[in-house]
Amino acid sequence: MKKFLLIIFLLLSSTSFANSPNFERAYFAGGCFWCMEESFENILGVSKVISGYSGGTTENPTYKEVTYGNTGHFEVIEVIYIPEVVSYEKLLEEFWVNIDPFDAAGQFCDKGYSYRSVAFYQNEKQKDLIENSIKEIEKKFKKKVVTYVRKFEKFYKAEAFHQDYYQINFVNYLRYKKACRREATLNNIWGS
Length: 192
Known about the structure:
Blueprint: H1 2-12, E1 24-30, H2 33-41, E2 46-54, H3 63-68, E3 74-81, H4 88-96, E4 106-107, E5 110-111, E6 117-121, H5 124-141, E7 148-151, E8 155-157, H6 165-168, H7 170-179, H8 182-190
Parallel strand pairs: 6-7
Antiparallel strand pairs: 1-3, 1-6, 2-3, 2-8, 4-5
């Protein structure tokens, strides 16, 4: 069965199908969108992950405006996925284990408002799933989760330089990720 799903997924995951009604979208902010892209693109059922900006008021913001300006945006990923293959709940689980939900200053070595963690919801079901997962995390760790829960409004695709950065600039990406102690921090929180 898994092999059959994999074949179907590979057939459907070409760019020409990205706007198919069989696909849904999820939006998460977890610090650097390069690292979030890598985590989500490895999930069976995820067709594409796009880096961008969301949550603010400035239309078509640039990286510089988001990072150094007052746009109100976060670095966000748009996850295009096949709900018959991977559920929103699974994506939400992946989100949590790839962030530090207790860091109000940002994520890892990236600090500042635009690097805060956010789970965006598009409907009441997603909102309930997010809020319930926060309660579970708080109960488990006996700490307050500071990740924002926001209604999704609009997504702006980031500059081409940021798309698939972890693949195109692999060595630089690995240096950045190691210097930020992302994996070490995640292992300390969630275990290996």
